Amino acid sequence: MLRSLVGSEMCIRDRYELREQQFAHQLKTKDLEQQLSDAKFNHQSEISKQEGHKLEAYQKELETRLLTEKELRAQLVVYNEKFETFQETLSKSNEVFGTFKKEMDKMSKTIKKQDKENAELRKKSQKCDLEIVTLFQERDHYKKEFEKSQSQLTSLQSLCKTLQDERKKHLASAKAQAGGEENIAAQPVD
């Protein structure tokens, strides 16, 4: 009877040690998963910061280009006013006609140049708009990934806590069983 009790106690102790090893392995696995999640989160946060900086730079560049376009348009209005004044002067005097023609050619070149610059600015503006839209989409994508990572992190933390609570219960149960078996072994055998 004593041998069977000693044998069963060794069996229980072996099972307990095996279970402890399993819990330690699971806890180590969860720690590694937590570290991986933290690394992914940090990486995504860094990418999000970089994209935010790019977005700010694009917005500043867009504002600068819009201001330049506004100034060019104001210059265009000024040139148009000068052109109209020049036409009035031409109708009053035939002597100024040669000068007017030269000024007209000069204005045409300037207008073509400004139209070309405006077209280029529009293209650049459209490109910036597309890049901003792309950046917003990427930001939303990274935001969703971040939220997903946060959710996974919360789930993993909850799972770790649950496993730790179960481990504590099992340890308490094992101690209680070990204490009960010692009491049985201490009683005299009839």
Describe this structure in words.
The chain is mostly helical. 95% of the residues lie in helices and 0% in strands. It contains two helices and no strands. The protein has helices at 2-92, 97-186. Helix 1 runs antiparallel to helix 2. The longest helix has 91 residues, at 2-92. The protein is rod-shaped, with a radius of gyration of 41 Å. The termini are close together. The model has no long low-confidence stretch (mean pLDDT 87).
Which characteristics define this entry?
single chain, 190 residues, mainly alpha, 2 helices
Summarize the helices and strands and which ones pair or pack.
Blueprint lengths: L1 H91 L4 H90 L4
Helix pairs in contact: 1-2
Short description:
This protein has helices at 2-92, 97-186.
Q: What structural class do the secondary elements suggest?
A: mainly alpha
Major sheet: size, sense and barrel closure?
Answer: none
State the helicity in percent bands.
over 70%
Count of discrete alpha- or pi-helical segments spanning 4 or more residues: 2
Query: What's the number of extended β-strand segments?
Result: 0
Overall pLDDT: 87
